[in-house]
Sequence to fold (335 residues):
Amino acid sequence: MNFPPLLYVLAFGSAFLVSLLVLPLWMRVCLRIGLVDDPGDRKIHSEPIPLAGGVSVMTGMAVPALAAALALYLHQPSPGHPNVPPESQPGELLLYGLNRRGIELVAIFVGALGMLLLGVWDDLRELRPQVKFAGQLGIALLVAAAGVRITLFVHSLAFSYLISVLWTLTVINAFNFMDNMNGLCAGLGAIGSFCIALVAALAGQYLVALIAFLACGALLGFLPHNFPRARAFLGDAGSHLVGYLLAVLAILPHFYTHKHPRVLAVLSPLVILAIPLVDLVRVVWIRFRLGRPFYLGDNNHLSHRLVAAGMSRPGAVAWIWLAAAIAGALGVWLG
Fold:
């Protein structure tokens, strides 16, 4: 059977509402414990802003996911062997998928929590780049060891680990770099996750689609508090989480199968995430040419160049969103 689209809508809507409603609570917690972005340096705000976006997005995803898992196991459909594909009920489909990919799913959410905590630690203590990179690497290896890996038609376990970890680290830092204007990182994450959700849903990969719709809803629930005027920021915790989620979501779908033999489909994740990836490569290249460390911030991002060309900050963000949506549509078509 086809997976009911209503369940995708439910995943998206529940994540959106939870994220939207819990953010004010998390803002108060962040203000109380000092998890804030203070004014100064190149910043335009004049008062401390709570870095509550990451925990809000994580809550928006985790609460509906845990509620759905609990409901499934408390009210299981008619018994059957877990390795036999179900025939009719959505609950049977979900239980079948959870039994088949349970280890991967647990690793994905554990990795998301780990990435969030790493970012919170960085927001509170400003970690050295080497420590932050080591944390990113450890989480990327954990998720790869659980089976969330890229193959690219190369039958080599070492290659699969290498390319998967490299991809995860690249996307995490691409979104971390894009967190330089209100709404930019969260909006790009929402667009990317929505496009991946469409690709997965159209291919019948319902578990991947559900996770992607959860991510999209949770990010959009945060966005009204962050754009155009920010009452809360993602912080490193949020930008790390967004990058991690998009990296993993881009790996999970089977973009090329015997029933779906278009070779160009493997390019779909690259096209969907083209804007943050291109900005990362461009900025790193500029910093390399200037002899500066690649991890030190500057005003050479695409968003800054658009503002320098005369756009307002919200206008620059909107144009980048539009470019990402066009690239995402092309990526969905390829997928």
Summary: The first strand starts at residue 36 and ends at 37. Residues 5-334 form one domain. The mean pLDDT is 87.
